[in-house]
Fold:
Amino acid sequence: MKRSEFRFADPLRVRWAEVDMQKVVFNGHYLMYVDTAMGNWWRALALPYEATLEALAGDLFVRKSTLEYLAPARYDDALEVGIRFESAGTSSLRFVAAVFRGEELLVHGEIVYVWTDAVTKRPRPAPPALVDAFRAHAAGEPMVTVTVGDWAALGAEAQAIRTAVFVDEQKVPLALERDAADLTAVHALARNRLGLAVGTGRLLAGEGPGEPARIGRMAVSRAMRGARVGNALLEALMAAAGRRGDAEVMLHAQVSAIGFYRRAGFLAHGEPFEEAGIVHQEMRRKP
Structure:
């Protein structure tokens, strides 16, 4: 079993509390490592765990967990926990897990879940759409699609995400979050392979001749951050700006997101400022 066989691998560093009297990671912690990696694997598929189960009216229970120990990990080791979907049975979903230190395989095993009805808790076949999403990820396919359109087509789903992120999470007043610009903006909406909306953003025209277009209201559902949903939204909006002929695009990045936009090619412009009680930095990039 090789590291290259896993498209998804969750990085971690061994903590002091996870080492036993033999100065190696206590065997039981590897199950915790795998379980934590499984949660992040769902995120990598742009599948918010609770919302997905609710949408599919199902639940998951562990049927079997097995691990085989080949070599120990020690305090402060940098590890990666690989997760790979292997197969679907009548009601079962089988995954392979492996813990690597670099290219060295330390632990491997399998986790088998049973898909059940959310109400009766009785086993039933896993929804084909869910299994298809698992297989698509294993095949290297994209996990989200981004639709670009107007407010009439995308507004209801976009507004739900924006309200959850800006109003509920960040405590931005509702009157500041909503404005008339939505009616003329180009909007982008990211949906996962089950059709659930997981992120949104908008593109406004420049305020005058020679002024840059503006990307704003970039919001990704809390459970999906780190799944590259924001990257997909940003590139879709930049492509829309290019098609429209915009020479430059600017945005107001919250300071916590400056690194994200810098990695996407945006450069700081001017000094930081406060907007809606949050410090921002103007950043610009050409389409």
